[in-house]
């Protein structure tokens, strides 16, 4: 093995210099810009869904999802701002620099909760729509909007309770960064094992559940499309039924696209977990620590993208959303 190959392996595939450039790109440009867009998009969503009325389960759940996504984008923005403050503005200042580091670490931990709520709400939305396809008459009676809200609140409360249990023992300590010989604030005494188990179990359960729901809903969409094609030249009653099927199909399309975006944007997190299990050195202290850090930045970006992109899905596939959007923001729908 020559020296260049040995050096390449020692650097863990990504050199420290390359990682420094990518850290600037993600932490100072991509992540804060996406977080700002996510915050603005979800403020719009919250206003529009509130104006639409929260009497039906679909609108209610999208309203909750918009709130949690907005909170997630906000925490990501705080993470980015605090990172900029302690790495670019308050370098070597002391107190303000340490405060910014504490805010940075605390914001990352706080972000676990809105991410959990978003995942829980997305699962509820997808599962309820699958039940509407499988047993449409019984769902309207059994799975009411209030019961859906109760499920979301119950699981979100459990998530909050666990996160408080895992994070409450933490404390901030000032240590010396061995790489730069500068002071560094760390949060210690966190229950990392429990946090890792919780994160992995909930992510895999949510991921698999939503994939199954997307498959079922996609099959339903295909059947609905075939039914509408056969009904185009039949009686008026059949035409009315076809229009009802069309409205239902638009709701399903909205849920399917929201679910697909969720799946795609959570793939990096699932991949990181699997690689960490298979490659022992893929960790914050292993040979591939630079690749691990880069993958975590990519994961954070995709999580915020997931919280940002739903506004476009709502606009293009939800007619009521589009009409209300125009009414709220001063345009007349055509």
TrEMBL record:
Give compartment(s): Membrane
Q: What is the top-level taxon of the source organism?
A: Eukaryota
Q: Where is the G-protein coupled receptors family 1 profile domain?
A: 41-314
GO cellular component term, pick one? membrane
* TM region positions: 20-50, 62-86, 106-137, 149-168, 201-221, 255-279, 291-317
**InterPro entries, per the entry:** GPCR-Ligand_Int, GPCR_Rhodpsn, GPCR_Rhodpsn_7TM
Query: Does this entry carry the keyword Repeat?
Result: no
Q: Name one Pfam family in it.
A: 7tm_1
What GO molecular function annotations does the UniProt record carry, in alphabetical order? G protein-coupled receptor activity
> What's in the keyword line of the UniProt record?
Membrane, Transmembrane, Transmembrane helix
Please identify the protein, giving its name as recorded.
G-protein coupled receptors family 1 profile domain-containing protein
According to its UniProt entry, this protein's organism is Elysia crispata (lettuce slug)
């Amino acid at each position: 093995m020559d020296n260049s190959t040995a050096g390449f392996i020692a650097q863990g595939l990504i050199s420290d210099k390359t990682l420094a450039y990518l850290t600037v790109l993600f932490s100072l440009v991509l992540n804060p810009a996406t977080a700002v867009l996510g915050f603005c998009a979800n403020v719009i969503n919250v206003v529009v869904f509130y104006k639409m009325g929260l009497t039906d389960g679909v609108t209610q759940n999208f309203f909750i999802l918009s709130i949690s996504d907005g909170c997630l984008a906000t925490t990501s923005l705080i993470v980015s701002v605090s990172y900029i403050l302690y790495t670019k503005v308050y370098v070597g200042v002391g107190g303000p620099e340490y405060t910014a580091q504490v805010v940075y670490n605390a914001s990352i931990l706080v972000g676990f909760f809105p991410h959990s709520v978003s995942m829980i709400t997305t699962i509820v939305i997808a599962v309820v729509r699958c039940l509407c396809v499988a047993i449409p008459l019984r769902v309207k009676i059994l799975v009411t909007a209030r019961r859906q809200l109760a499920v979301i609140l119950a699981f979100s409360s459990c998530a909050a309770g666990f996160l408080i249990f895992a994070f409450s023992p933490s404390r901030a300590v000032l240590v010396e960064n061995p790489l730069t010989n500068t002071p560094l604030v760390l949060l210690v005494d966190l229950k990392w094992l429990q946090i890792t188990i919780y994160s992995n179990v909930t992510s895999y359960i949510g991921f698999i559940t939503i994939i199954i729901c997307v498959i079922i809903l996609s099959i339903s969409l295909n059947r609905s499309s075939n039914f509408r094609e056969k009904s185009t030249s039949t009686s008026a009653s059949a035409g009315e039924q076809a229009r009802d099927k069309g409205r239902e199909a638009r709701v399903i399309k909205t849920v399917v696209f929201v679910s697909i975006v969720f799946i795609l944007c959570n793939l990096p997190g699932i991949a990181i977990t699997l690689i960490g299990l298979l490659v022992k050195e893929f960790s914050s202290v292993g040979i591939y620590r630079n690749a691990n850090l880069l993958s975590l930045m990519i994961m954070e970006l995709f999580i915020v993208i997931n919280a940002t992109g739903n506004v476009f899905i709502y606009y293009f596939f939800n007619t009521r959303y589009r009409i209300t959007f125009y009414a709220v923001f001063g345009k007349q729908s055509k």
